[in-house]
């Protein structure tokens, strides 16, 4: 009996990327499920044009937390998780289908190539980056909580296999952050989520200083030196620096939460605090 697969895509304002993602799976996926966070553009319209089943989820900062809901909408046992800015290469699609039809494994680790800043820095990005993206949903652990930059955990009984990578023919092609501007737009959102996860109410100033010194430098050295991102030229350097800044921003936002008594401030709330500060200083000077 043919094993059927559902491709699951979570979206938020992805009208430019979504057609490419869907076209990369449209000819062989038995079902395409798109879970949208009330996009402001044509994302939903495009999904429907390609015959995808469309569902909605409230907008949340930790984007990964909506994946469980998306999986629950799929009608097939086999699931392929695909981001809207990703494409499955034709050769990878054939390998995925072969493994599924042989039915000897329950989880497939897929190689991913992260393209950014108008090109590809294979060393800095750590190609191939592997993710367990195709699986039988009954092997996903119950109670999974979405956490940024993670996918799913699986039961010990799951039989796992890995597809050997080659670029660009055998990998998930991840078109992330084509420009510096889009990269910083994304990391502003990601670091806010990261800061909440890392925040510890017992964190003191010494711990923050240690984080400030250690984590950004460690991240830069991993990307630029350990992975030999310097061999990727200026693209490798700037990507390594952006990840350095990512860690700086995360630590700054942890401090910001600490400074706001354990709460992540809103712009309105922060403005009100500044105005109160001015008022209090004005009363003292009178």
UniProtKB/TrEMBL annotation:
Residues of the Glycosyltransferase 2-like domain: 6-107
Domain of life of the native organism: Bacteria
One Pfam family of this chain: Glycos_transf_2
Protein name: Glycosyltransferase 2-like domain-containing protein
Taxon lineage: Bacteria, Pseudomonadati, Pseudomonadota, Acidithiobacillia, Acidithiobacillales
SUPFAM superfamilies (alphabetical): Nucleotide-diphospho-sugar transferases (SSF53448)
Annotated organism of origin: Acidithiobacillus thiooxidans (Thiobacillus thiooxidans)
Similarity section: Belongs to the glycosyltransferase 2 family. WaaE/KdtX subfamily.
């Amino acid at each position: 009996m043919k094993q059927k697969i559902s491709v699951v895509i979570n979206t938020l304002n992805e009208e430019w990327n979504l057609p490419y993602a869907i076209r990369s799976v449209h000819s062989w996926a038995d079902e395409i499920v798109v879970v949208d966070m009330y996009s402001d553009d044509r994302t939903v319209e495009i999904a429907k044009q390609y015959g995808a089943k469309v569902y909605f989820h409230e907008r949340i900062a930790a984007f990964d937390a909506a994946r469980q809901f998306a999986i629950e909408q799929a009608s097939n046992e086999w699931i392929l998780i695909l981001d809207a800015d990703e494409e499955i290469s034709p050769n990878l699609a054939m390998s995925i289908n072969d493994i599924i039809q042989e039915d000897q494994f329950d989880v497939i680790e897929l190689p991913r190539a992260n393209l950014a800043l108008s090109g590809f820095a294979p060393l800095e990005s750590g190609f191939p980056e592997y993710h367990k993206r195709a699986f039988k949903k009954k092997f996903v652990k119950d109670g999974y909580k979405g956490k940024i930059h993670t996918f799913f955990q699986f039961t010990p009984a799951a039989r796992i296999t890995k597809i050997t990578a080659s670029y660009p023919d055998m990998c998930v092609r991840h078109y992330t952050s084509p420009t510096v501007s889009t990269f910083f737009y994304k990391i502003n959102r990601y670091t806010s989520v990261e800061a909440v996860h890392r925040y510890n109410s017992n964190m003191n100033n010494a711990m923050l200083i240690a984080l400030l010194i250690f984590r950004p430098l460690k991240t830069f050295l991993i990307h630029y030196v350990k992975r030999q991102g310097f061999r990727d030229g200026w693209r490798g350097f700037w990507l390594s620096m952006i990840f350095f800044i990512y860690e700086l921003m995360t630590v700054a936002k942890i401090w910001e939460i600490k400074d706001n008594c354990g709460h992540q401030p809103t712009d309105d709330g922060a403005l009100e605090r500044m105005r109160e500060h001015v008022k209090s200083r004005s009363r003292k000077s009178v």
